[in-house]
Amino acid sequence: MTRIAGAADVPPGTVIRAGKYAVGNNNGDYFAVSRRCRHLGADLSEGSIDADGCLVCPWHQSAYDVRTGQMVRGPQGAFAKIPGLGAFYQALTRVFPLRRQSVIERSGDLYLGD
Ligand code: FES
Question: Class assignment of domain 2-105?
Fold first, then answer.
């Protein structure tokens, strides 16, 4: 197992970088997903967690279900005006979701499951 950080360093609502993963705490549920947004490659460890517990990309606010790695809302802003673009990325991530990894909490520390 690879140590990520102390659990206290990842309070609810935060996302941090851990190697190839963005690790977050959604109301006490930890998750780890690969860091590169499937849209244009933004670093998802710099993203945020929305009210639905989805990981939101820092560049164009696409949203990912961290349990499946699938995009549930396509890129926003000017990209949202392109017909079919959001549906395309949602379909793409059904086939190529973000990689997921388990996060294990042990004695106050977080580890990536291997
Ligand atoms: S790079 Fe993530 S939504 Fe555009």
Answer: mainly beta
